[in-house]
UniProtKB/TrEMBL annotation:
<dbReference type="InterPro" id="IPR002155">
    <property type="entry name" value="Thiolase"/>
</dbReference>
<feature type="domain" description="Thiolase N-terminal">
    <location>
        <begin position="23"/>
        <end position="181"/>
    </location>
</feature>
<protein>
    <submittedName>
        <fullName>Thiolase family protein</fullName>
    </submittedName>
</protein>
<dbReference type="InterPro" id="IPR055140">
    <property type="entry name" value="Thiolase_C_2"/>
</dbReference>
<dbReference type="Pfam" id="PF00108">
    <property type="entry name" value="Thiolase_N"/>
</dbReference>
<dbReference type="InterPro" id="IPR020616">
    <property type="entry name" value="Thiolase_N"/>
</dbReference>
<dbReference type="Pfam" id="PF22691">
    <property type="entry name" value="Thiolase_C_1"/>
</dbReference>
<feature type="domain" description="Thiolase C-terminal">
    <location>
        <begin position="253"/>
        <end position="369"/>
    </location>
</feature>
């Protein structure tokens, strides 16, 4: 699972973002190149220094990376486009890390970019009849998960709403977030009902944006005189897909549990050592069940942690300090790399206005359509 343990060290040396935003007439190359140029400037590198580029996108179509990166100049580097649903950016980052760790490149780029496009799911073209008109709707799927958790574990509607309150509050402090307005518990609960117990403010927005992360070997850092103090080590990178589920276990939750344990094991730490976690919270119920699955608390204890402020910035472990998908936004291709950008900023101590104190270990975890999972652990040396 872990492609880094026996290979050479990998460090994030540059990060950049284009703010996540609602659909606009901004061309996607403008979004992506804004993030890329910010990452190059952050690292102190030029485009000619990049040895490979992994592009994560879910809705742009064929050869999106080539169309965008030709504006930087043709340098002959390896270029790969990655689509893995919501985990597209996370998968692109993993490939960039593996390129450096294995010696295929000294410096590699992971860039996620998307606009709210017309992409269709392959499940709509599989030739099989649907069980219902909403059989493949994530909204319905997570509304049902929320109802199951309510019935099985005594979860209250207000517990889910507290996730949205926290994450919208974090996003209000993040200049790159799509939503910049704090919300009260009353506002979240009173927002428009969408499905089951989920209201509009408990569902992530779709939009557009871009995120970039540049990774480098220790040799490249030394050779080019990069700032070693700002380089953040990637200690684990894992990926898996869904497996058999026994009894009454929920497949989406089990893939997070298994992936999270694999990632922590690969990093050689326990969940209790994590200072920051960025995880998939497209719907508020997800943060509750996935935080438990990742081992941040015992089963059934998440609502209490939320009420006690343990997952707030400044708490025991800041969960989604960027604002998460609920507040930061979920443009698909950039989302997983955006998590890495937030974590690097936090571990450097540069997250002004939302800094988690004394942060050393952080996890970024994403799932895609409940069928794939990608996890990373990063460490400040």
């Amino acid at each position: 699972m872990n492609g880094l343990a026996t290979l050479r060290p990998v460090h994030v040396v540059g990060i950049g973002l284009h703010r996540y935003q609602f659909a606009s007439d901004t061309p996607y190359p403008t979004l992506g190149l804004t993030a890329l140029r910010a990452a190059l400037a952050d690292a102190g590198l030029s485009w000619a220094d990049i040895g490979a580029a992994m592009i994560g996108t879910g809705a742009l179509g064929m050869a999106a990376g080539r169309v965008m990166l030709r504006h930087m100049g043709a340098t002959g580097i390896e270029m790969v486009q990655v689509e893995n649903a919501s985990a597209s950016g996370s998968s692109a980052f993993r490939l960039a890390c593996l390129h450096v760790a294995s010696g295929q490149a000294e410096i590699a780029l992971a860039l996620g970019v998307d606009k709210h496009g017309t992409a269709q799911r392959a499940a709509e073209k599989d030739g099989l009849p649907r069980l219902s008109p909403t059989a493949d709707s994530p909204l319905v799927e997570f509304a049902l998960l929320a109802r199951h958790w309510r019935d099985a574990h005594g979860l209250e509607v207000a517990d889910m709403a507290r996730v949205a309150v926290k994450n919208h509050g974090n996003a209000a402090r993040n200049p790159f977030a799509q939503f910049r307005k704090p919300r009260s518990l009353e506002q979240v609960l009173a927002s428009a009902p969408v499905a089951g117990d989920l209201t509009a403010l408990q569902c992530c927005p779709r939009g557009e944006g871009a995120a970039a992360a540049i990774v480098a070997s220790a040799e490249a850092i030394a050779r080019l005189g990069l700032d070693r103090a700002r380089a953040i080590r990637v200690t684990a990178s894992t990926a898996c897909s869904e497996g058999p589920v026994a009894g009454d276990a929920v497949g989406m939750v089990e893939i997070v549990r298994r992936s999270g344990l694999d990632t922590l094991r690969a990093a050689g730490i326990g969940a209790e050592e994590l200072d920051i976690v960025e995880l998939h919270d497209a719907f508020s119920i997800e943060e509750i069940v996935y935080a438990e699955a990742l081992g941040l608390c015992p089963p059934g204890a998440a609502p209490g942690r939320l009420r006690d402020g343990a997952w707030e910035i400044g708490g025991a472990c800041a969960v989604n300090p960027s604002g998460g998908l609920l507040g930061m936004g979920h443009p698909i291709g950039p989302t997983g790399i955006g998590q890495i950008v937030e974590i690097v900023r936090q571990l450097r101590g540069e997250a002004e206005g939302r800094q988690q104190p004394r942060a050393r270990y952080a996890m970024a975890h994403m799932i895609g359509l409940g069928a794939v999972a990608v996890g990373h652990v990063l460490r400040r040396d």
